[in-house]
Amino acid sequence: MMTECGTLIIGASQAGLQIAVSLREAGDTAPITLVGEEAHAPYQRPPLSKAYLLGGTDLEKLWLRTPEFLAQRDISLVTGERIDSLELHGVGPSGTAHTIGGRRLTFDRLALTVGARPRRLEAPGADLDGVTYLRTADDAALLRELQSDAESVVVVGGGFIGLEAAAVARAQGKRVTVVEAADRLIGRAVAPVVSEFYRAAHARRGVDVRTDARVTWLAGRNGHVQAVELSDGTWIPADLVIVGIGVVPRTKLARQLGLECDGGIVVDRCARTSNHHVVAAGDCTVQPHPLTGTGRVRIESVQNAVSQAKAAAASLAGRREPSDAVPWFWSDQYELKLQIAGLSTGHDHHVVRGDLDGESFSVLYYREERLVAVDAVNAPGDYMAVRKALTQGATIAAAAAADSSVPLRELILPQAVGA
User: Fold this and answer.
1) Cα–Cα distance measured from residue 222 to residue 242, given in angstroms and rounded to the nearest whole number
2) 334-353 per-position pLDDT tens digit
3) Which of 26, 27, 207, 375 is the most exposed, fewest CB within 10 Å of its CB?
4) Is the pLDDT assigned to residue 3 strictly greater than 70?
5) Global pTM?
6) Which residue has better confidence, 184 or 91?
7) Burial track 234-255 (b if 16+ CB lie within 10 A, e otherwise)
């Protein structure tokens, strides 16, 4: 089966859908084919570890756009098909893709929005039933089913996904243990003060948090997990294990095309790959820092996927519209809402304001006196003020920020020349 030429978007993700919609909004009338490996229409992923896992919503309510919306805009959606091989005709931009199911898709323009896969737990017994991952809607549906019957849940990985899953399990009355190999929770994303806050917050709600701990073995009976052994020799009962130890960008197709990959598909600020005829967006990519334009970062967030996708659509249409929006992210755990704006990587000091014990505070991050990010827990005003400042290229003096009696929005200053 062959499809007509046009734009082929591989990956029915947030980024993939956004590219298609942006092309149509810009007046592009060429055929668009959006191919997804999953059987579902494109959906929101963040609620999978929150409301969906808790049982508070159905998958159809998470759809980003209905199939009818896509059909009305002449966007062909192909679900349940995986692209296995890909080649360009010469240097591109046209080429041909082949699916596992035998489809042959020709294209004039190509976008890769293939996302990432969960990093697998490498320990004996990791293939037992009851050892689960949380990345897709099917993962979440299976986990929701297994969790309803579970009594003792072990979460491997103290990042955002793991902690959100732990919060859901604890809210359902399960015995929950979080096992983190590093010396603190969410250590790659936040300052130690925020890590300690979340450790204490989960402990107060009955979660057993183990840091500096590695899983060495998973024991089972009749093929189903029953217990987890840690590196210190202790055993934890477990009839359900949720693994959240990060993701690995999908680069197979990019490598087939000879595209540069380095911890992800390398793209520029316009979402162009090393072959400028091909664009890529979302969790599969590494990109220049959105605010400074330097270095390479990989950002896993809805905001980044949408921003990159808009830049990618512009590039496909022959326009240059760099992705330079302020990164933002959120995490819901219990009644704690964490909102992050900016990127704190490389900060050299931080300021804490608010009430940690009262579970309402913010942490502002600085590098060489320049404001670079904020983590705000139940402090939406602080989050919005810093996001506004970063968007404007402004700053907030660290000494002034420490005084929580003054709203941050009143402290926004122009960034010093040359800062």
Assistant:
1) 19
2) 999 999 999 998 899 999 99
3) 27
4) no
5) 0.94
6) 184
7) eebebbbbbbbbebebbbebbe
What was the pLDDT predicted at 50? 87
